[in-house]
Every structure is written in C-alpha cells, then in structure tokens.
Amino acid sequence: MGFTKFINDHALVALLGKKFPMDLKLLAKSLDERLNYMCDEGHPLPMDLLIHNLSNKRKRYTSEFFKVDIDFVVNEIPEKNCLYLTMNDYQAEGNIGRPEEDQRVVLHLLVKNKADTLWAIHIPLQAVMTGFGDPLDGHQCYAHFITFLGDDGRPSEEPENIYFGITKRNWLTRMAEHFRKSAKGSRNKFHKLWRECQGNNHVLLNSELIALNQTETGAMQWEELMVDRCNADEASLNTIGGGFKGLEELGKFKLSDGEREGIAACPSFQVNFNNSESREGIGNAYMKKLWQDDQYYAKVIGNRSNSFSKEQVDKIRSLAKDGHDLAAIGKQIGVSNLKRLSYIINGKTYRRM
User: Fold this and answer.
1) Residue 2 belongs to some domain of the structure
2) For the whole model, what pTM was predicted?
3) Do residue 295 and residue 204 come from a single domain?
4) How many domains does the chain have?
5) Residues 6+ apart with CB under 8 A from 84
6) Which of 60, 98, 208, 301 has the fewest Cβ atoms surrounding its Cβ within 10 A?
7) 237 near 162, Cβ under 8 Å?
8) By residue range, what is the domain housing residue 187?
9) Which region among 127-141, 193-207, 255-269, 325-339 has the lowest average model confidence (pLDDT)?
10) Are the CB atoms for 198 and 117 separated by under 8 Å?
C-alpha cells in the first residue's frame, strides 16, 4: 500500500517534551515503519486507529479510544543507537488483558532516569497519531505509580503505590515540577517515596497519561474517583482527596449536596474508569507480559549492581552439579553470602535463568 504517515511528530514532541531521554525522531520513524509494515502484512490495526481518529463520531470529551487490547513496547539500546520495538496482543489472552472498558492501544517507553532506575512511560498511541487533534487541548489526567520487584525481578506481592493528578498544562511539565520538589527534600508522601526509590534496582517507576482533552469538571471528577478508589486500597500517594473533594478539604470552597449531585450526573467525563472496579493502571497488563519475557528478565536482572548475571548463575549451578559445596562455590565466585548461593542452586531465586 506504500508509505502512510501514521505518527504525528509534533504531537509526539508535545506529549513527551524536547528533553525526553529518547530520540523522538527515531521513535516516530520506528513507529511509522512498524505500522506500515503491519498494513503491508494485512493487519487491520493501523488503519482502524487512523479511521477512528479521523471519525467525526469519536467522542473527544470522554477520551474515547479504539477498543482493542494491544501494547507497543519500546526499549532504547544506546550502544547501538537504535530502538527495540515489540507488540503485545492481548486479544487472544483473556487471562492477562485489560477489561473491555479499559481497552486501548498503549505505547510503553522504557528508559533509565538520572539515578539509573528503570522508568516506564505509558501514553495512548492514538494520541500521537494523525487525526487525533491537539493532545494539549483541555486537561490531562495522569498517574505515577511505583512497582516493587522481588529478588527474581518480578513484581512482588507488595501493592503498587499510586499518585493521581490532573493538569491544564503538559503532564510532563507538571511531572518535572513534582520531581524537582522531590529532589529538594519535600516531605509530601508522593515526593518522599519517589525520592527514596531513586537508584533502587528493586523498583520500577511508572508514569502514565490516561485521559486527554478533558473539561475541568470532567478531569476533577476523574481525579476524585481515582483517589477515592486508591484510598480504599490503602495504596494512594495523594495527600488529600482528589478533584472537588480535595478542594473542599483545603477549605477553598464547599459544595452543597445539590451541587455535588449535579456534578456527579455531568456527562462530560464518562471514560472507562468510572465503571471499573479495579484501581490498577493500564500498564499492568503490559508489566505482567513484560516480566514473562525471559530475555528481558535476564537483561534487567543482569544489569543490577547487586545481582548476579546469567553467566554467574550458570556457573554457580554448574559448580554445584559437579559436587562443590557452598563454601567452595562462594570462594570461586567471590560471594560470602552462602544463603544467596543456596537459593540460586535450589531454584528459589533466579528461577528463569
């Protein structure tokens, strides 16, 4: 079918910023090439997304996206000056996919922040595609969440901590302000935990843009709903309630029961999350799939300063198989913690290496 311009370069820069730690020109080119290749192979997704963007029936005020459960994951490989792009299609995997009301195509960008901690940025792919319109028009709804990892690199059973926010400006501009306050020693719950996690190889930092083009009322409703839901799970990093409730707590104004009922009935924001019982972020289905990838798992674990590489794990197990005791193995590997060696040999840790 030839080359079609699917990605809007200006929208990509608008949402991610000129200082984003990834080559955005290369990213736009890589995404365009992948979508065009999919078209040539007969995959309907690229044209479905493009047609949905251009449709006059698309409800911008509800942040409506094409209902399909697919993720694009982008890893930067600095030493090769290239990007590694994969696609995860959850449509045939109902056990790990998003609920129908939350389905959309999400673009996941994996980078390292200044403290060398893995940082995942999640945005709707349609928002940077041709025909979507101005992604900065109206309010944006976002979340920052922290995923704790076990010794084996998989998400632990410890619940994610989540901060929800809204902004009239670019969400990354607002995020940069949060990070500056965190670096300056802010005691705000979100800023404090985010600061403590810097340089920690056992966490994954996440930033997710969830809804765009919102009215102020719609965004306030969304934030109030999400913070309330997260508070119920005792996982919220928001210091006060979200939206109008937060303003009431600050004493800036008080809504009457009638006014609150009127806002609750307002149709300006009916996006997926209002009917979802889950507080989990869109990125969770992707995270579950990502950590099932043995190659990615070994890459992340092996790059940690306090972890064993795949070669070391193989050698430890090989020595044990040859009859060497823990003390002898520890001496050869240069490890004094024999319990860690025992866990590796018995398969309690590094099971997938």
Assistant:
1) no
2) 0.72
3) yes
4) 2
5) 74, 75, 76, 77
6) 60
7) yes
8) 9-300
9) 255-269
10) yes
